[in-house]
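Justification of resources, computational component.

The compute hours requested in this renewal are based largely on the per-chain cost of generating structure records like the one below. Each record pairs the submitted sequence with a full structure-token output. That output is archived, and it is also reused by downstream analysis tasks.
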Amino acid sequence: MASQVISARISLILIAALLVLRAIMAAQLPLSADEAYYWLWSQHLAAGYFDHPPMIAWLIRAGTFLFGDTPLGVRFMGIVLSPGFHCDRLGTSKASASTVRIEN
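The structure output for this chain reads:
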């Protein structure tokens, strides 16, 4: 039990460290062509787009509202939402690992 608590704590520390690193890199690196395309969508919000649903545009609009039209603004909501994904994956992997049985 104690090893599981330590393992979970280490996992959460690693997720936090990677989150900080991702935020630093998001602020420093220029936008890719796709990110610039999605940013353009956020300038003209719609209920949907020809090849994608609208959520990415709405999330980028929220980020640029907070941080302006900067690379960090465009990427901010992805950074905010990523810990939920990582923690969900952590929980899923632990649940599936605990149900695996090895038989000879």
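The chain has one domain: 2-99. Residues 2-99 form one domain.
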